[in-house]
Write a structure and sequence with these properties.
Blueprint: H1 5-46, H2 50-60, H3 66-87, H4 93-105, H5 109-122, H6 127-139, H7 143-156, H8 159-165, H9 177-183
Helix pairs in contact: 1-2, 2-3, 4-5, 5-6, 6-7
Length: 188
């Protein structure tokens, strides 16, 4: 039997509708699965399982829905930073100080401040720590803190006064009369 064009269109329309419904359901299931993978990875981050979370997010990223790609990248960076910090283990205060100064030299001021602050608590008699803090404070334009930390460094080791006189890291402080008084107390 030969079908007319009208009959063909009627029989074809339901099959097209069925295939579009199936595609929509399949897409919805894929999205639900993607969100579930994402949620699982975020839970790993929240639990502090950074290595597993980074692996899951990196695996998920190529197929992630567009609205999740930037979030995935952010979590991946967070995981790597956390793993890097966890890997930091210092045998001596000097090693921690060297690491803090390397952070300072790279312009990572908050990381350097965190390391030096912890070190100041752990080794309150280490003059070099307070000297490092005063340099950091000078570079980040915190004159009050700079003066206090430099005064403490000089109190612990008077040779820090001589070093600070020629240290270009204090260029932000050179015009401050309090800084001059601290470095040259013998001059009236």
């Amino acid at each position: 039997m030969v079908k007319t064009k009208m009959q063909e269109a009627k029989t074809a329309a339901p099959s097209r509708k069925k295939s579009s419904d199936t595609a929509a359901k399949s897409h919805a299931q894929a999205n639900a699965s993607a969100y579930q993978q994402y949620q699982s990875a975020v839970q790993l981050v929240q639990q502090g399982k950074y290595e597993k979370a980074a692996g899951a997010l990196e695996k998920f990223l190529p197929s992630a829905p567009p609205e999740l790609t930037e979030r995935c990248r952010m979590y991946i960076v967070t995981c790597h930073r956390q793993m890097e910090q966890a890997a930091l283990a210092f045998a001596t205060p000097e090693e921690r100080y060297d690491y803090a100064i390397s952070q300072l030299n790279q312009g990572l001021f908050e990381e350097a401040r965190e390391q030096l602050g912890t070190l100041a608590q752990d080794a309150p008699g280490a003059d070099y720590v307070f000297y490092g803090l005063s340099v950091l404070d000078s570079m980040t334009e915190r004159p009050q803190e700079c003066l206090a930390n430099l005064a403490r460094a000089i109190e612990l080791n008077p040779r820090n006064r001589l070093q600070a006189r020629s240290d270009s890291d204090f260029q932000n402080m050179f015009d401050d009369p309090r800084f001059t008084e601290l470095l040259y107390p013998e001059v009236p």
